[in-house]
Amino acid sequence: MRILCLNGPNLNRLGKREKDAYGTFTLAELEADLAQFASDHGFELTCRQSNHEGELIDWIHQAEDDGLTGIVLNAGAYTHTSVAIRDAIAAIRIPVVEVHISNVYKREEFRHHSYIAPVAAGQITGFGKDVYILGLHALLLGNQRG
After folding, report:
1. 53-65 and 83-90 helices cross at what angle (nearest 10)?
2. In its keyword annotation, does this UniProt entry include Plastid (predicted)?
3. 10 annotated as a binding-site residue
4. Which of 41, 51, 58, 107 could cysteine-pair with 9, CB 3.0–4.6 Å?
């Protein structure tokens, strides 16, 4: 199994920004935890982060072209604004699990709408960095059933 973990805009600022919403861990610490989880569970994981919408879209397309098993995606603010990322997910045949560190439904009203949710395999929100592990578990379980 090969899984891609994508993080969108401003997630490179984890540990520095809005600690009440996002915690104190850094992106590097998160990626190290995810790499350890992947190693422990016998699958390949690639983590990427970009503040650029087009780059995220290219990586989503490439994941299918490269035969990856699935994507865990935290699109950040693009979740609430990007029809282009929504369309990229709809254009591929591999599952995408949408994740959010904070509970977006307890935050500002504009964060309550996701363009991604209707085309994602599922959404996990509000459990801190554990949302990524839960997303990986969902993809692993889905692959075992499929």
Report:
1. 0
2. no
3. no
4. 51
Residue 139's Cα: distance from chain center in Å?
12
Active site residues: 22, 100
pTM metric for this prediction:
0.93
Determine if residue 92 is labeled as part of a ligand binding site.
Answer: no
**Is 102 labeled as ligand-binding?**
yes
Q: CA-CA distance, 69 to 143, in Å (whole number)? A: 8
Query: 94 forms bridges with which residues in the sheet?
Result: none
Q: Token digits for 80?
A: 């609430």
What domains are defined for the chain?
2-145 (3.40.50.9100)
pLDDT of the chain along its 146 residues, tens only? 999 999 999 999 999 977 777 778 999 999 999 999 999 999 999 999 999 999 999 999 999 999 999 999 999 999 999 999 999 999 999 999 999 998 988 887 878 899 999 999 999 999 999 999 999 999 999 865 44
Q: Find out whether 74 is annotated in a ligand binding site.
A: yes
Q: Are 45 and 33 in contact (CB under 8 A)?
A: no
